[in-house]
Amino acid sequence: MLNAGPVDILVVEDNDSDCASIVEALQRSIPASPVVAVRDGTEALEFLFARGLAMPGVDGFSVLEAIRSSDPEAMLTLTPVVVFTDSSDFNDVHKCYCYGANSYIVKPVRFSDFQSVVETISQYWIKHNIRSV
Amino acid sequence: MLNAGPVDILVVEDNDSDCASIVEALQRSIPASPVVAVRDGTEALEFLFARGLAMPGVDGFSVLEAIRSSDPEAMLTLTPVVVFTDSSDFNDVHKCYCYGANSYIVKPVRFSDFQSVVETISQYWIKHNIRSV
Fold first, then answer.
1. Do A132 and B105 count as a contact with CB atoms less than 8 A apart?
2. Averaged pLDDT, groups of 10, chain A, 133 residues long
3. Which residues of chain B have a CB within 8 Å of the CB of A123?
């Protein structure tokens, strides 16, 4: 976890190299936006809901489900969720939207494209999109 | 209506000047993507569901509701919807997300910014985002 204060973006990424690239691109693209990075769904739930680490192996779908079905008081229900993934499998795309993802983007293979797409994502969602909370 | 074939983007805009600016920016930004423009919610429902024009005064919320609650066979349920509006009222933002909008963006006042933001929206959703259908 790279930050413990209020955050604009939570990165959930179990690939250390991809995680470092994403965080670096975010910090360059939107330096004023605090970013937190966690390794997996379990840590994401712990961060979002202050849950204990008793739920190992939580996948992205479960995190999405927890966010969308959470107590509105927690102000997470309508938080934008962008799935950024290696999978371009139709079933994964469909399932993510069914679980409430706002957007689904496949990771480019080339490093420069990867960085550029992370910047595009962050610019769009932090600079242009208006959040509900 | 500017196009009658298969489309990538449906623009619903009752302000003629804004509509022309949006379509122009889309055609410049993503020339290979067919665009249809309609004037209001009634025409949007007619286009999306081939409904008759018996429902005057349909607002954006009703169109969103119709899209999200539509028959999955119609392949519209998970279609990305970007609200692009003059309103930055918190209640409108909140309501749009509750009705299933993927993203909410306030129209910039300056013409050059307006064009630039439309290009950003189109690049993001057509070039980067993967749709379910």
1. no
2. 70 96 96 95 91 69 93 85 96 94 97 95 96 85
3. 120
